[in-house]
Amino acid sequence: MSARGWSVALWLIGSLGPCRPRAPQRDAASTPAAVPGGSPQIELPADSPMLSSLKIGEVTARELSTDEVVSPAQLEIDPGRLSHVLLPVTGRVREVDVRVGDRVAAGDVLLVLDSPEADAAIAHYEQSEADVLAARAGLVKATADRERVHGLFAHDAVARKEVDNVDAAHAEARAALVRSEADRRQARRRLGLLGLRAGDRRDTISVRAPIAGKVLELHVAPGEFHSDTAQPLMTIADLSVVLVTADVPENLIRFVGLGESMQTELAAYPGETFAAKVVRIADTVEPKTRTIKVQAALPNPDGRLRPEMFGRVRHSRATTSMPAVPQSAVLHRDGGDVVLVERGPGRFEVRPVRIGARSGEWLGLAEGAKVGERVVIDGGLLLLPSE
């Protein structure tokens, strides 16, 4: 190569400089810049597409509870409003007058049963009536005999033995009347249980609803013969009031008292709350979950609330006013909570906060932000680098 060629080659090499890879440029918003004496700051260019993805809102003052209890819950039937219908006697089912889901009133006929015990019960009552009449007549005669013999004895016309005999007969007549009246009362109660009346001449028994409510279960059909009077044939429940059962952690049970109100939220009805009243707090702690069962009565006049529905309950006593933001505004960073406070167009301050209360979708801030400050309430994760 000529001297002129070497000169050109050396000039090209020198002008290129050392061959090193160029470091990638980090987005200005990916690393908050520390401000002397303050919190880290994030700045975005005016034309950054991130700005359109952010939602800004003001810190507002809200009345929030500092002792709120939130627990999962489930709706249940009140055992005191549940009735299992049994047969009063054995017999064959002639007809069933209800179906599952029917609403019945107390005293409505549920089914009709063919049973020879109907006639037997009526006959027993009529016999007991006759026994009472006979016993009364016997007592009248015994009383008259007693008075007559005592009169004769006063004039020394009869011996003392005769007096003792009529006294004993009078006492036995009185006892017979008491026994016959007791037997009649029992026979009358038996008629009432069977839905019969004295003078009826039939061999059927009508089984009636003991309470008003809905038929939830039905285990009987016409033509079946049932001899087990301890086996329920149907279940009726009054669902005008249901129970909300919640498992409250033992460290929060001190905040709940009998008669206090609980707000119930159900998955079936998002956005709605239902007020319930605490009626029972269990006396024992569930050892595995360390929770205590709390039950509250929940009115259900229109029947929208159904047993086994899931949801949660909220309970609080005292409230206090404090700065509050939506839950989406608070971000978790470096082991703590922060919010992004707007300091100007495209400028945000990463400010630590301390949560003082929780209520629904709102968080109360005990420290870190003031009412009226503007914060990022949605999209804040886009501004912070991944941990």
TrEMBL record:
Provide the protein name.
Efflux RND transporter periplasmic adaptor subunit
State the Gene Ontology BP annotations. copper ion export; plasma membrane copper ion transport
CzcB-like barrel-sandwich hybrid domain location is 82-238
Q: Name one GO molecular function term.
A: transition metal ion binding
**Family (UniProt):** Belongs to the membrane fusion protein (MFP) (TC 8.A.1) family.
Give GO cellular component annotations, separated by semicolons.
membrane; outer membrane-bounded periplasmic space
Record-annotated CusB-like beta-barrel domain positions:
244-317
Q: Which organism is it from?
A: Nannocystis pusilla
Annotated stretches, region: Disordered:
22-47
Q: Which domain of life is it from?
A: Bacteria
List the SUPFAM superfamilies. Answer: HlyD-like secretion proteins (SSF111369)
Report the Gene3D superfamilies cross-referenced here: 2.40.30.170, 2.40.420.20, 2.40.50.100
Q: Which UniProt keywords apply?
A: Transport
Please report the stretch or stretches of sequence annotated as the CzcB-like C-terminal circularly permuted SH3-like domain: 324-380
- Xref: InterPro entries: Beta-barrel_RND_2, BSH_CzcB-like, CzcB_C, MFP_Cation_Efflux, RND_pump_MFP
